[in-house]
Structures are given as structure tokens and as C-alpha cells.
Design goal:
- By secondary structure, this protein is mainly alpha-helical.
- Among the domains are: 103 residues, no CATH class; 95 residues, Serine Threonine Protein Phosphatase 5, Tetratricopeptide repeat (Alpha Horseshoe).
- Helix content is 66%, strand content 1%.
- It is built from 14 helices and two strands, in the order αααααααββααααααα.
- The chain has a two-stranded antiparallel sheet with strand order 1-2.
- Strand 1 and strand 2 form a beta hairpin.
- The radius of gyration is 22 Å and the shape is elongated.
- The termini are far apart.
């Protein structure tokens, strides 16, 4: 009886983890049918995988055991890839991520585009994948942002600033439609406003950049990075006194940088006050 109860708990836990990573069981490939014995073996291996370190080779081995039983499980291929990307072992993780996409493209192609934008910095591949997602499945969100947002970030990193602006505007308009009851500065994520400011700054449109940085600062009032670039734009239009005052405030707010979950693993585009930056070190 205790063993049955334990298996039920593990199965429920497994399903919760699957939902957390956006896995849609109904849409995934199910070409390999499992016997009840094989299903129990997968539950056992998955339980053991969650009892060892996320980055451990032992966890990878348990996942290998699962995939030897059901090699068409996109979710478990993604689970092999994810910790390798977080450990910056991109070339090791990439084949596993490709397998997840192969077996469940609707669930994991957008995730792959996100990983290539924020983690492995494969910007052209990220753009290609996210444009394909948009074409096949329509506009949506991955990891809290629109597909257009990550396309724009990739274009920023390729110095294609007009294209970045184009997709950030698409992202903004998409959010205005999706959140019609919110005021504009809240309906659109503050990072969209921030990166719109960056795109305009890089294009030499400093007044527009300042306006966008102000929108980001309406939501994230102590956003040091936005203060820094706003100060830089103010300096460009000869508002030097304001610029020096704001740049001093920016450095005082160096701890208030981009606050996405992934900043624990990666530096975001145009993130001034990240942990590796000399600007974040005590003077």
C-alpha cells in the first residue's frame, strides 16, 4: 500500500513538473506505447533523477534510462538539455534540445529560440526558429515575453537596430491587445520599453529613447540600467547637468538591474550592471 501511495505521489509530482515547463501531453508524439511495467520504471527513474543534483552526471544517466524506454519523450530530452545550458555547456545541450523540438515542435521550438537568444547567443538561429513558430502557430509568449521580444533582442545583438525596433513595436502592440485593461506602461513589459529605448538610442533618436526609458522607469523606478542609458541620451542632447545627476543615481542603483530569472546564469543584452561588469564593482 505504501509503495502504491509513493508511486501516485511521484506521478503527480512528475505531472506538475511537466506543466511547469509547458509540456502539453495531449499534443506530444506518442508513437511508442508503454507497458505498465515500463511506465513504472520511468516513474522510478524520474523519482531518482529528482533526488540528485540538477547538474550531476547521475541525473543525466537516469534521464538516459528513461529515454532508453521512451526515446520520443520531448519533455525528458528538454530536461537533459536545460541544466547543460545553465552550466554554459551549450554544445553538449544543443543535440538534446533539438530532440525535444523534433518530437514536440509546438511546445519546444519557441523554447529553443529563447535558449539560443539568451543562453547560447546563436542569434540568427534564434530569429529563424521564432519566425517559424510565428508562421506555424501564431504569436504567443515564451518565458514571460513575446516571441517578438526575443527576435528583437537577437537583432539588437546583430546591430540591426531598425529591425529590433520593428519587432519591439510588434511586441508592444501584441501586449496592448492582450492586456487592454492595463495602462500602456503596465500592459507592455518594462523590458520592452527599455529595449525600445536602446534601439532608439542606437539609431540616434535620443529624445525618443528618453521617452521609452521613462516608460520603463514608471514601472521599475530604481532600474539602474535604464537610468544609465537615459543619462547617456541626455548627454547626447547637451542636457549635461541632468545627465551627470542621473548617472550618479544610476550607479547608486547598480543592484537594481535586469531582474529576469535567467540573470543568475546569463548576462542580458545591454545589461550595464551585471555581475561581470567593471561598473558593478566597488570604486
Amino acid at each position: 500500500m505504501k509503495k502504491i501511495l509513493l508511486l501516485l505521489i511521484v506521478i503527480v509530482s512528475c505531472k506538475e513538473n511537466v506543466k511547469e515547463f509547458g509540456f502539453n501531453e495531449n499534443n506530444a508524439t506518442k508513437s511508442i506505447k508503454l507497458s505498465s511495467q515500463d511506465s513504472l520504471r520511468i516513474v522510478e527513474f524520474w523519482s531518482k533523477a529528482n533526488q540528485v543534483g540538477l547538474y550531476s552526471t547521475m541525473r543525466q544517466q537516469y534521464l538516459d534510462s528513461i529515454l532508453s524506454i521512451k526515446p520520443d519523450s520531448a519533455y525528458f530530452w528538454q530536461q537533459k538539455a536545460m541544466p547543460l545550458y545553465k552550466a554554459r555547456k551549450y554544445s553538449l545541450g544543443k543535440p538534446f534540445l533539438e530532440k525535444a523540438v523534433e518530437y514536440a515542435p509546438e511546445e519546444f521550438l519557441s523554447y529553443s529560440g529563447f535558449m539560443k537568444c539568451i543562453f547560447s547567443k546563436e542569434y540568427n538561429e534564434s530569429i529563424e526558429e521564432l519566425l517559424l513558430v510565428k508562421e506555424k502557430y501564431g504569436d504567443s509568449y515564451v518565458m514571460d515575453h513575446t516571441y517578438n521580444f526575443y527576435i528583437a533582442l537577437s537583432y539588437l545583438q546583430l546591430n540591426k537596430f531598425a529591425k529590433a525596433k520593428e519587432y519591439l513595436i510588434k511586441s508592444r502592440e501584441q501586449q496592448f491587445i492582450d492586456f487592454p485593461k492595463d495602462p500602456p506602461h503596465e500592459a507592455c513589459h518594462f523590458l520592452d520599453w527599455y529595449y525600445l529605448g536602446i534601439a532608439e538610442y542606437e539609431l540616434g533618436h535620443y529624445e525618443d529613447a528618453i521617452a521609452y526609458f521613462d516608460m520603463a522607469l514608471r514601472v521599475y523606478e530604481n532600474f539602474g540600467d535604464a537610468m544609465y542609458f537615459k543619462a547617456s541620451a541626455l548627454k547626447k542632447i547637451d542636457r549635461k547637468d541632468e545627465a551627470w545627476e542621473l548617472i550618479e543615481k544610476a550607479f547608486k542603483n547598480a543592484d537594481n538591474t535586469i531582474n529576469e530569472d535567467q540573470v543568475f546564469y546569463e548576462v542580458y543584452p545591454y545589461q550595464i550592471f551585471h555581475r561581470l561588469s567593471p561598473m558593478s564593482r566597488p570604486k
